[in-house]
Amino acid sequence: MEENILKGVRDINQRHTVSLLNALEKGVNRKLHEKELEIESMNRKNKELGDRIKQVAMEAQSWHYRAKYNESVVNVLKSNIQQLLAQGTAQAREGSGDSEVDDAVSCSNHQRIVSGSGNQGLQNHPPKCRVCNGKEVCVLILPCRHLCLCIDCEGFIDVCPVCQVMKTASVHVYM
């Protein structure tokens, strides 16, 4: 009988131990699963932050290029202002202040340009962009109607470089 009691106590202890181990295993598995989900969430956020860092770096590079471009435009405009100031003294001596070159880039001279009765020298040497001085003019600025920009500079200019009137629109002109 004592053996049966001892055997029963051992069985009860063994069941309690198994039950305790099962409960511990479930708790550990639950905690492990929670931590795995947490790690997965952190990895996802880390990837999103990495993507955002790349995007911000690209935007910063774009702003850097734009600043460099604007800096070069400012330098060109300063040079143009200095040239215009130098020409201004020469034009004051000229008398009326009219210049063939200025007429060629202004749309106020459009009848002579369209009809071909304008200055023949201008047709051989088309006017250059007033911003970059590199490319041929092909953009008409509105409302002032000055034909004075190339297609590359048009997107960055808000004010007519000839008369300083605020640009409301522009038209690409095929010549």
UniProtKB/TrEMBL annotation:
Descriptive protein name: BOI-related E3 ubiquitin-protein ligase 3
Pfam family, one: zf-C3HC4_3
Keywords associated with the record: Coiled coil, Metal-binding, Zinc, Zinc-finger
Phylogenetic placement of the source organism: Eukaryota, Viridiplantae, Streptophyta, Embryophyta, Tracheophyta
Keyword flag Zinc: yes
Source domain of life: Eukaryota
Gene3D superfamilies noted in UniProt: Zinc/RING finger domain, C3HC4 (zinc finger) (3.30.40.10)
Coiled-coil annotated residue ranges, if any: 25-59
GO molecular function term, any single one: ubiquitin-protein transferase activity
Domain RING-type intervals: 129-164
